[in-house]
Amino acid sequence: MDSHKHHWHILGAGAIGTLLAFKLSQQQLAFTLIGRHADNESRHFTDLNGVPHHLLGVARESIDYLIICTKSTQALSAFSAIESRLHSQSVVICLFNGLGAQQMIQQRAGCPVLFATTTEGVTQVAPASYRYKGAGQTLVDAAILQHMQPAELPKLLRTVDDIEQRLMHKLIINSLINPLTALLDCENGQLLSSKPAMVAMRLLAEEIALWLATYRHRMPVEDVLKLAVDVIHLTANNSSSMRQDIKSHRVSEIDFINGYWLAHNPQNINLEHNRCVVEKLKDLQNAFGQVQM
Length: 293
Ligand code: KPL
What we know:
Layout: E1 7-11, H1 15-26, E2 30-34, E3 42-46, E4 52-56, E5 63-68, H2 72-82, E6 86-94, H3 101-108, E7 113-118, E8 121-126, E9 129-134, E10 138-141, E11 157-160, H4 163-184, H5 195-214, H6 221-234, H7 241-247, H8 258-263, H9 272-288
Parallel strand pairs: 1-2, 1-5, 3-9, 5-6, 6-7, 10-11
Antiparallel strand pairs: 3-4, 7-10, 8-9
Bound molecules: ketopantoate.
């Protein structure tokens, strides 16, 4: 495929999808933002300097490069809806929280599927309108360079050789922060001053360290905890995505976060605290009622 013809389809027109569209547009790269309501949705985006941008891509049926940034709960169904537009040389990049949905897409797709993770901070400020809150990094599996020249890679993507480990670390961070902020209805930083939250976080970390040991990823409990505590300091004023999902009556990603450890536990190690937060989160979801997937 010629570099000048590279066109990026972004599946999921939420916070991260809109940020990707903004960054691609800054590089004059062609994009299509596929949302819930239309194949080429437009978005408003305010950059870090407070400058507003109106983003509207170019409609294009055939998909060469696809970045999926839906919620993990919607990734497989959103992918199934556009899958017929891919071809054997298309490249799919999964960029969402949690683990589990990436593997489902990989098994299903007839083309290469790569994994990515991001620490960018973007918040919705109104329907179809987002604001950049904090610059982070978007890391993608270096295997992408088997499908394009380094110069063709959009600047927003940084390649790494250890994407699996990066995803695992992000899963740990999300497992320790997200459900507790949703259950205690607090910002990330408030967890550190809550004794019950810190006790619960340690219990979750102990089980995760046990799980990691059975998969030969040995990590002391203190290191597991430190991963989350460092991110809490960096994102102290954030409302976690799970807390936002619950408040907006959306299905949370709990099955792909704490639920991941439970679903991949062939040695039946004791994960009662992770199981307990999954159950409590689902009770909370049911109490709030979900109006959209
Ligand atoms: O990824 C996040 C999330 O909210 O999903 C953290 C890192 C916890 C930041 O809020």
